[in-house]
Amino acid sequence: MAECEKTPKCQFFGDKMDNMPAAAAAMKETFCMNGKEACARYVVSISGRPVPPDLFPHMIERARGIISQT
Ligand code: SF4
Description:
mainly alpha, 3 helices, binds iron/sulfur cluster
């Protein structure tokens, strides 16, 4: 799988978010390098909605809630 094209500007990938989790490196491997389609930040971003500053990649349920809003 391909690296996420959003890595250059992504606040998570760039370690710019508050409270970065200890598992951030593993999450980058899982989501940013191998599975962007499952990333909460990615799915919100491609929906055209603003990505919350505290939305981490594994928060897919929250992301689904955001993108289901009308
Ligand atoms: S997979 Fe998600 S967290 Fe990683 S760079 Fe892409 S949008 Fe950012």
